[in-house]
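Quick question, first post here. What does this chain look like in 3D?
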Amino acid sequence: MVENVVMLASAADKGNYGCEILFNLSTPLGVKGGINIYLTRDSVTVVFSHPRIMIVKCRTMKFQMYTISAHAPYCKFPTAGAEASKWWAHSSSIVSSTSFGRISVLIGIVANYVVHSDASNGVGDVARSGAPPPQRSRVCDFLNDRS
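> Answer (accepted):
Ran it through. Tokens below.
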């Protein structure tokens, strides 16, 4: 902990990857009954840790949530699509096997996902490129499982 900031990090793999989640303990997480809710060092616990995905549970007397940090493989080459699809399926199984109950989950993922022609109109035309990437169905499965 440095200057009231708690940093939780997953291990790197041969110097690569690793995920981090930082919490500023001096900033209220929310307000309940007119009282600010703050995290403490003891109120954050790593539930799962891997070089490309980490799940942290935050719990105070009045508030609970999970935070997920993840980093998907980059698909620069078509052969990397299989690796990315495997990662999305594996990450989805990790998240699905974590019992969140009715507790809120904040997910931050570096998706390394190419937006393609069947993307939402809200994305805009600038980032669109031809055919969907090979991991598209796994990404959609991951997102649909969280709703």
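The CA atoms of residues 57 and 66 lie 4 Å apart.
The longest helix spans residues 80-97.
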